[in-house]
Amino acid sequence: MSIHLTRQHEFAVITLDRQEALNALSAAVLRELAQVFDQVAASDARALIITGAGPKAFCAGADIKELSGRSLTEQRRDVAFGQAVLARLDTLPMASVAAINGYAFGGGLELALACTFRIAVPTAKMGLPEIKLGLIPGYGGTQRLPRAVGEARALEMILSGRTVEAEEALRIGLVHRIADGDPVQAAIGFARGFSGFGLPALRLARDAVKRALDFSLHEGLNIEADLNTLASQTQDAEEGMSAFMQKRKPRFKDR
Ligand code: CAA
Questions:
Q1: Between residues 130 and 68, the one the model is more confident about
Q2: N or C: which end of the chain has fewer CB within 10 A?
Q3: Number of folded domains in the chain?
Q4: Rounded to an integer, what distance in angstroms lies between the CA atom of residue 141 and that of residue 104?
Q5: Is the CB of 33 under 6 A from ligand 1?
Q6: Active site residue 219
Q7: Would the CB of 60 count as within 6 Å of ligand 1?
Q8: Which of 71, 38, 57 is nearest to 124 (CA)?
Q9: Pocket flag, ligand 1, residue 52 (CB < 6 Å)
């Protein structure tokens, strides 16, 4: 198995562990990842942390040794599968945090971009170097990177394939935080900032923001009104507002 699913406190932790290939995403690893995401979805974890094993890499991207010699049909099928696996992160009941512990290139950075949040160690190096292979990103990089850092910065990274260091990544919004110490512990500390709230409201808020990026402001406001109305009907909303009025801490039950 190249993927380990463990539990740290109330959090699920996925570790990519294929260190001989810098945790590259082979087809087999992607299939394993899909199964593990299903396990996480069915668990009671409050958030998911994703990291890479070993001192060097979060993930060095798609497995380049598997990429050449594919027919158009095979390539289209495989890239669509990779996209679908990463998109599953959006439909998990809980938010996800990429704990970027080293290199995050190509599909590795795309995996991090598909997470809700990204935290990187100060020595992390990130980029979409596909252009150097005569390729372009295929697991969502051309779509999610501009949403994170803006069109010009995304195009610069994609067209030049250049490596971005952690400090710059923080400045341009590619990562949210630099980890002080162990990246998984930093991600857990970060996730504690929201993991005590009710999962239904957390999920609806994630949906509203994600969907805002696909629609006009007018349609987005309609979506927000719908999801706000849904949230207001949950038991957690009733509990949260009662607790406020009774001047006590709310006890959310994810209902
Ligand atoms: N696929 C397969 N194997 C990989 C790999 C990858 N993406 N990245 C690294 N490896 C392997 C290397 O081939 C090497 O194996 P061998 O010892 O058997 O030769 C091992 O991992 C260690 O790598 P290096 O010796 O190259 O380590 P380094 O520290 O000198 O360099 C690196 C690290 C800069 C990350 C370099 O390995 C590298 O540039 N890797 C490729 C990064 C890349 O181009 N990623 C994009 C892939 S395409 C993609 O992801 C498409 C998409 O959008 C889905």
A1: 130
A2: N
A3: 2
A4: 12
A5: no
A6: no
A7: yes
A8: 57
A9: no
3-class secondary structure, 96:
strand
pLDDT at 168 over 90: yes
* 110 catalytic residue (yes or no): yes
Are residues 120 and 234 part of one domain?
no
pLDDT of 139-166, one tens digit each?
999 999 999 999 999 999 999 999 999 9
Please indicate, yes or no, if residue 250 is contained in any of the structural domains.
no
Q: How far apart are CA 79 and CA 139, in angstroms?
A: 7
Average pLDDT over residues 6-33: 98
Cβ neighbors of 231 (< 8 A, separation 6 or more) are 200, 201, 204, 205, 237
Determine the structural domain holding residue 67 and report its residue range.
Answer: 3-191
Are both 143 and 161 inside the same structural domain? yes
Out of 20, 66, 74, 110, which one is annotated catalytic?
Answer: 110
132 and 232 belong to one structural domain = no
* C-alpha to C-alpha distance for 198 and 186, rounded to whole angstroms: 22
Please state, in angstroms and rounded to a whole number, the distance separating the CA atoms of residues 56 and 120. 13
